[in-house]
Amino acid sequence: MEHPHQLVNATNFIFCLMLLLLRPPVATPESSASIPTGGNTIGSGEQQHTDGGNPGATDAGAPPIAGPPMAVGTGGPDRSHLKVGSGACSRFVFNSSRIRNGSIAPAHSKHSGLFPSSLCQLYEFVGAGAERVQIIFSEFRLPSKQGPSECGDTDILMVYYIVDEREELVETLCGDTLPKPILSEGSRLLLEFRSSYNNTENKGFTGDFFFLTNFGIPTGHQPNQSECTFHYFRNASSQGWIQSPNFPGAYPRNIVCHYFFHGGPHDQVHVRFTYFDIEGILPCDEDSASDYVEFSNFNTRDRKYALYCGHWRELAVRSDGRYFRITMASNDRLDGTGFRALYTFETTQQQQQQQQQQVTTEQTAVAAKSATGKVTSSAASRLLHHIPGMSLGLPLLPLLLRLPVALITVVLAATVTATTVITTGTRPITSVIRIIGLELIKFLQD
Fold it and tell me: Which residues are 120's β-sheet partners?
């Protein structure tokens, strides 16, 4: 009875072995060029290969990463449409919950100093809430085999917006010109780098990334981080700069930004644009599918100002009063570079004239007081002029005002007496005039 049991065991062993040998290989998530969404954590300087042992990517190394370790995902939607040949991509994910800013740069081969052939690397940035991703390049050298003005399929850096889990290729970068800053439309951004053209001029790129909520506008007070609204106050600064989001890079689509200026009681706001490039054509409204900039002295539309778009070399506006508003709006079509402007809170011309007049009056009064020792009122001058017979003593008036009080009394009494005798020839009138003179002297002393 032992032989049948041994035969059964041998048969089962052979059957299990055949199942293992005939089982088809299972594709792992690492074998596809998918967008990482989470997974294991590796230290800085490490790299996870997803090319199935591609010898060309072995010497690539990981890009230098600032900050704590980053998460490398192992799943995501299919990105087979981005594959070049049979190679796949190394993936790096930067999450704002773990790292707020840092730098990226693909590593060269340790032996030749060049990029390996069929090199592909993905950089995904994942923000939270109202955060946006901004990339500022400090170095960029990816020469193209097709010439300086045209990018091919390799030696390129592709920029993708990710909105509602949908990827949109918005820009392909190559050449040796430093690209302008990049700002995502939402909280996620994807960069894909591919290189196969090895030469000594191919230095790659270096870019700094930031998770931010100020839309790339570094000035002004932003009450709500989810809104592109900024306030500028006279008591904080009498002069400063404003700019469109992500300037000098392209501003985002479907965005509305408000700039509010709050001056003093007698202030006006003067805004002078040093650069102005807003995509659109006249009359810069919705019918012309244009982005635009609006000026207003109110919170509502101001009919005094037209909408502005296009390219302006010289543009300056001035508010009617202490309050001013500038609004920039973009649609979902083409992009522009935006604007940069210098704002100044200026005191109104009328107020300046009043202040200058007041200063002039005070200076005149001080000069008169220093010359005579006492400022003579206009009322006293008019009273002296209307005394009967005083017209004969007018040449003596400037001298009399500079004499001591006692001398003024004698001279004035003599002048009045002589004038009265000549005029009337009676003594009573002379006494009356003398009394008036004494009262006048008393008035001058007061």
Answer: 194
Highest mean pLDDT among 112-116, 149-153, 273-277, 407-411: 273-277
* Residue partners of 298: CB distance under 8 A and separation at least 6: 323, 325
Residues 261 and 323: beta-carbon distance below 8 Å: yes
Res 218: pLDDT: 96
In angstroms, the CA 333 to CA 68 distance is 38
pLDDT above 90: residue 25: no
DSSP assignments along 21-88, one per residue: HHPPPPPPGGGS-PPP-S--EE-TT-----SSS-GGGTT--PPP--SS-EE-----S--GGG--TT--
Q: Which of 238, 39, 199 is nearest to 109 (CA)?
A: 199
Q: What are the angstrom distances between the C-alpha of 54 and each of 50, 88, 157, 400?
A: 9, 9, 21, 113
The set of residues, in sequence order, having a beta carbon less than 8 Å from that of 309 and lying 6+ positions away, is 278, 279, 280, 281, 282, 284, 290, 291, 292, 293
- Cis check for the bond before 283: say yes or no (omega within 30 of 0): yes
* Pairwise CA distance, residues 260 & 274, whole Å: 19
325-381 pLDDT per residue, tens: 999 999 998 889 999 999 999 997 756 676 677 777 777 776 766 665 544 444 444
CA distance 215 to 133: 9
More confident residue, 88 or 112: 88
Q: Is the pTM of this model over 0.70?
A: no
Check: CB of residue 222 under 8 Å from CB of residue 245: no
First to last CA, the chain: 149
Q: If you average pLDDT over residues 291-304, what whole number do you get? A: 96
Sign, CA dihedral 296-297-301-305, equals: negative
Q: DSSP assignment, residue 165?
A: T
Using CA atoms, how far residue 125 sits from 122, 226, 263, 336, in Å, is 10, 19, 40, 24
172 in Cβ contact with 139 (< 8 Å): no
